[in-house]
Design brief:
Belongs to the CorA metal ion transporter (MIT) (TC 1.A.35) family. This protein is an all-alpha fold and 178 residues long. The chain is 72% helix and 0% strand.
Length: 178
């Protein structure tokens, strides 16, 4: 629209031909007498320019909001992945304890069947192994996450993306046209 208005404003004969009432009455205007129409079209050109600027601002705000939402979703995804890793590590610890208890729970003769403390010792060893493996895995995961977070924050400064609220936009006047 802006390009079309500019093109019409550059052609004097097109501007003069837009006075249709004078043309119908048989009195066509000379090409140099089109000041009123030129002022009107320049006014429309300014309004179109304002609309273009406002739409560009809106597009920029939408883009910034989209980036913020993507960052939030990435952070939530990373937290879910970390939780999944923690659950997997805990499951591995419990599996290792169950393996240990299963080996001693099999009906194989190993000389510990007659001992009074063998059951308690095997149970404590299985629980200790499960707790140790789970604790060690979670500790290492937290250490890796801290190292990667500190490396990310030291290599680049965090950017703050702010989306300004548009309070300077006046509501349209009743009966106003753009």
């Amino acid at each position: 629209v802006q390009a079309a208005i500019d093109e019409v404003l550059e052609q004097d004969e097109d501007l003069a031909a837009m006075y249709l009432t004078d043309k119908k009455a048989g009195h066509p205007r000379p090409e140099s007498e089109h000041d009123e129409l030129e002022v009107l079209l320049e006014s429309f050109s300014k309004q179109v320019e304002e609309i273009v600027n406002e739409s560009e601002t809106t597009m920029h705000n939408v883009s910034a909001t989209q980036e913020i939402v993507e960052l939030i979703l990435d952070a939530n995804r990373n937290n879910l992945l970390a939780l999944d890793l923690k659950v997997s590590i805990m499951t591995m610890g419990l599996g290792a304890g169950a393996l240990f208890a299963g080996l001693f729970g099999m009906n194989l003769a190993n000389g510990m069947e007659d001992s009074m403390i063998a059951f308690g010792t095997a149970s404590l060893a299985a629980i200790g192994l499960a707790v140790f493996l789970a604790w060690n895995g979670v500790r290492r995961l937290d250490k890796i996450r801290r190292v990667s977070l500190s490396m990310n924050s030291s290599t680049r400064r965090p950017n703050r993306i702010s989306v300004p609220l548009r309070t300077d936009i006046a509501p349209p006047r009743p009966g106003a046209t753009l």
